[in-house]
Amino acid sequence: MKTLDVYGIGAALVDTEIEINDAELSSYGIEKGVMTLVDEARQLELIKLLDNHLVMAKRASGGSAANSIMAIASFGGSAYQSCKVADDDNGHFYLDDLTKAGVSHSGAEQLPEGTTGKCLVLITPDAERTMNTYLGISETVCRKNLNLDAIASAKYIYTEGYLVTSPSGKDAAIECRKQAEQAGTKTAFSLSDPGMVEFFREGLQEMIGERVDLLFCNRDEAFGWTGASTLEGAVEVMKQTATAFAITLGAEGALVYDGANSHCIAPTAVNAVDTNGAGDMFAGAFLYGITNGMSYRQAGELASIASATVVTQFGPRLAVEQHRQLLSQL
């Protein structure tokens, strides 16, 4: 009996958002539209340079998988997150934020010394998000942070590809998948970022194993992973990696493959101001849908509306009442 909808594992990061223009990105040597790992000194340098660019977004517990897991809980699903934070202000804030969102977690009673991970999210006028991430203690997330009972009780596990940059994180993700397969828990995975696909392909393949039940990616990640130059070509090659998958297409909507049929999910026209968290929201809403009785098409439609809504405001998450409103629209 599976009593938990989704078990997630990923980096625990506290987000700070900053508005910036393309010229500033270039002058500071920042590659646009991707996630770049930086040390704490570099992150603090950027914050000091851009301290008058802070947007009106509250501090939020984040990390790709965590954003999705919190969306699942906010829609009314049951969710658990494996993560690692330090005994500092951000660490206590992070775990408290998870708890308030209704997410069970692996936070220990005695947190280790260190620095909780932080993500500097740079937002350009075209709403594109560029991330500079200092992993902090999150880089040392490992097998000890897994909850095997929760994995066994879940309908799905959900793993973010960003864990590939951490040796212990990658190992934990692989062990999480193996435990899920043994327990009859389905596996869902996100390629996370074009840079992860380009520079860590072998590690991602280790994390995925022979194949996953459900894969999430955007168009660039799909092309990078499959080597295809057309969406149709990527879809055919993707079937070798995953039984089912969802490819987000930005303003063009999404394509969902349910293991037998492809579904074109129509976009929702909005005025985007911040694309941070769009893919995470899509994955979270989709996973909520398929673990709570929706078809793949219905889950795709919910995910499309939810991700379109989150880009209309700053920050990667929606208020609980917004999730309820979205469900009422279906």
What report would you give on this structure?
The protein is an alpha/beta fold and 330 residues long. The protein has one domain (4-329): Ribokinase (UDP-N-acetylmuramoyl-L-alanine:D-glutamate ligase, 3-Layer(aba) Sandwich), CATH 3.40.1190. 40% of the residues lie in helices and 22% in strands. The protein has helices spanning 22-27, 40-49, 64-75, 89-100, 148-153, 167-183, 194-199, 201-208, 219-226, 231-238, 278-290, 296-310, 320-329; strands at residues 4-9, 13-19, 35-37, 60-62, 79-82, 104-105, 117-123, 129-134, 154-160, 186-190, 212-218, 242-248, 254-257, 262-265. The strands form two sheets. Strands 6-5-1-9-10-11-12-13-14 form a nine-stranded mixed β-sheet, with helices on both faces. Strands 3-8-7-2-4 form a five-stranded mixed β-sheet. A hairpin with a 5-residue loop joins strand 12 (242-248) and strand 13. Helix 6 (167-183) runs parallel beside helix 8 (201-208) and helix 11 (278-290) packs antiparallel against helix 12 (296-310). It is globular and about 50 Å long. The mean pLDDT is 94.
Rounded Rg: 18 Å
Strand proportion: 15-25%
Helix content: 25-40%
Report the total helices. Answer: 13
Catalogue the unreliable spans: none
CATH architecture: 3-Layer(aba) Sandwich
The helix-strand sequence is: EEHEHEHEHEEEHEHEHHEHHEEEHHH
**CATH top-level class:** Alpha Beta
The number of distinct β-strands equals 14
Query: Structural class, please?
Result: alpha/beta
Overall 3D shape? globular
User: What is the end-to-end distance?
Assistant: 28 Å
CATH homologous superfamily grouping = Ribokinase
Main sheet strand line-up: 6-5-1-9-10-11-12-13-14
Q: Average the pLDDT over all residues and give the rounded result.
A: 94
For the largest beta-sheet, the strand count, sense and barrel status come to: 9 strands, mixed
Total domain modules = 1
